[in-house]
Amino acid sequence: MSPKNLKAALRNERLAMRDAMPAEARIEASLAMADHAADIIALDPGHVVSGFWPIRSEADIRPLMVRLKDRGARLCLPVILDKRTIVFRELADGVAVVSTGFGTTGPGPEAPQLDPDIMLVPLSAFDAVGHRIGYGAGYYDRAIDRLRSKGHMPRLIGIAFDCQEVASVPAEPHDVALDAVLTESGFRHFERD
């Protein structure tokens, strides 16, 4: 099986497992994530953290985002501009959020665009060494590549439930590995060479 087909199979399998979690279990797991990581994610006041509002059965990291904001983080959310590009717009008090494509919600075009220092990355599946499978459109891979081409190296923290872990993700040259992953069981850093 090709890496692309294997990724698609793993994506479908793990998203089905995530979808099968009762809503109450997802809420409890999301709150546990905030408890595990809100105080240990290293950030300085003013650091920009990109989060996301949950779609479908994703973890709800809004409680974590509030706690990071309380520690001095500036928050932003991804906004889909076209079939290939996302940007990150500042989420500030009093800023209206709107539908931003692909079922997502984020600040409107009047909100400033920011370059995240820390990215909380949604995903379909991940493995024990930090490889991830996204939703298949490549938005985050391209956004990370664009940030790195500008000399900006955001820390990448995958957000998932335990049931989304797989034995191995077939990594391809264009894939971007995570620096850490946060699940309801805790926060794990990955060693990089």
UniProtKB/TrEMBL annotation:
- NCBIfam families recorded for this chain? MTHFS_bact
Gene Ontology biological process: folic acid-containing compound biosynthetic process; tetrahydrofolate interconversion
Pfam families listed in its UniProt record: 5-FTHF_cyc-lig
The protein, known as: 5-formyltetrahydrofolate cyclo-ligase
Q: Which Gene3D superfamilies match?
A: NagB/RpiA/CoA transferase-like
For this chain, the family text in UniProt reads: Belongs to the 5-formyltetrahydrofolate cyclo-ligase family.
List the EC numbers from the record. 6.3.3.2
Enzyme kind, highest EC tier: ligase
In this chain, ATP is annotated as bound at: K7, A8, A9, L10, R11, R132, I133, G134, Y135, G136, A137, G138, Y139, Y140
Keywords from the named record: ATP-binding, Magnesium, Metal-binding, Nucleotide-binding
Lineage top rank: taxon: Bacteria
Listed binding positions for substrate are: E58
User: Which cofactors does it use?
Assistant: Mg(2+)
Any one Gene Ontology MF annotation carried by this entry is: ATP binding
Q: Which reaction does it catalyse?
A: (6S)-5-formyl-5,6,7,8-tetrahydrofolate + ATP = (6R)-5,10-methenyltetrahydrofolate + ADP + phosphate
